[in-house]
Amino acid sequence: MSARSECIIVTGSAGLIGSEAAEYFSLAGWRVVGIDNNMRADFFGARGDTTWNLRRLTENAPTYEHQAVDIRDRQAVLDLVAAVKPNAVIHAAAQPSHDLAAQRPFDDFDVNAVGTLNLLEATRRHAPESPFVFLSTNKVYGDAPNQLRLVERETRWEYGDEADYHGIDESCATDQVLHSLFGASKLAADVLVQEYGRYFGLPTACLRGGCLTGPNHSGVELHGFLSYLVKTAIEGRKYTVFGYKGKQVRDQIYSGDVVRACEAFIRAPSSGAVYNMGGGRENSASILECFARITELLGCEVAHDYTDENRTGDHICYISDTRRFRADYPSWSITKSLDDMIVEIAEAYRAA
Q: Are the beta carbons of 306 and 288 closer than 8 angstroms?
């Protein structure tokens, strides 16, 4: 696929993955049409505002064209895709918070599920041969991962059975589990993306992300764990740990590695593909372990409060098993370690 004549639509283009994708493809010579109406500022206030990132993007991505379209606006989405006729779509726009979804359920579902349907149907009508990559989430599995046998270690929860060593694979249950409304709206979108692949034959993929992070993340308490934690430590503010003794485990993946996974699929697509996407065991850490790494790497003690009440449906131990994606795209690999990401987030924040 020659980049020079290619065009890609990226939704959520001022967010973490969207901006990384927009810059990456622009520098590779693609025409990039970004869709983002800065709804993060509405969702999360000033700390969630992505205006700074859009400004950075327009300076660094020479072929970037911005469209402040709301993906809930069906006609606007249909008209834009009809006009652009993209060669690929990366759909990264979302309402990303469990807590906010419970407070604003209509907005959550309209953005995550209805917005995705609008983009899929627009693509089917006007660019049916174009690969469509959806940034889904591991929250489509609800609290099913908590049903695995777990053991408590000194600083983390760990899988108790050797068969689970590599983490959660794509066969994990999505039905009859507790999701949160956010998890439910993302699952609805995830199933739609699969169905447009399986039923209509569109080249679609769901990348079920774990904790996606990087220096361009506008992390807030309700979303963006590592980014928010690093910034909280640097500012000397208190971080609140919700339950599980701070031993709950997440795997972190660098935003650029996610974008390269999107590119790999775009170059060799299939229909209705589903992949877990995360940092894997090598980039997994509990909250307590992240505290220790931040202190060692940045010299910041992480002040924190603790409450026994965990967030509803929160994963106790979640490590992404990415072996299916690695098997289908063997040239793809993780390029940034957890330590690399902590340092980069800190350096970007201190330089801002």
A: no
Which of 44-53, 267-276, 301-310 is predicted with the least confidence, judged by mean pLDDT?
44-53
Tokens of 141: 């599995």
Strand order in the sheet with 284-286: 211-213, 249-254, 284-286
Would you state the structure tokens that stand for residue 348, as one six-digit string? 């970007």
Amino acid, res. 329: Y
Closest CA to 91 of 160, 189, 7, 167: 189
**Domains in the chain, ordered, with CATH?**
7-351 (3.40.50.720)
Give the number of other Cβ atoms within 10 Å of residue 40's Cβ.
Answer: 26
Q: How many Å apart are CA 108 and CA 115, to the nearest integer? A: 10
Q: Judge whether residue 194 has pLDDT over 60.
A: yes
Q: Return d(Cα 290, Cα 81) in angstroms, integer.
A: 42
221 neighbors 182 (Cβ within 8 angstroms): no
273 DSSP β-pair partners: 205
pLDDT for residue 256: 97
Other CB atoms within 10 Å distance of the CB of residue 311: 15
Token pair, residue 100, equals 């906010």
Residue 105 neighbours by CB under 8 Å, 6+ apart: 181
Beta strands at 64-67 and 31-35: parallel, antiparallel or unpaired: parallel
The residues that bridge with 64 in the sheet, in sequence order, are 32
For 161-184, write each residue's pLDDT tens digit: 999 999 999 999 999 999 999 999
- 291 neighbors 302 (Cβ within 8 angstroms): yes
Both structure tokens of 28: 């590779």
Distances in Å between the Cα of 345 and the Cα atoms of 53, 82, 118, 166 are 14, 38, 34, 27
Q: What is the pTM of this model?
A: 0.94
Rounded to an integer, the average pLDDT of 49-61 is: 94
Which strand (E) or helix (H) includes residue 104? none
Element (H, E) at 125: helix 115-126
The sign of the dihedral angle between the CA atoms of 53, 267, 204, 336 is: negative
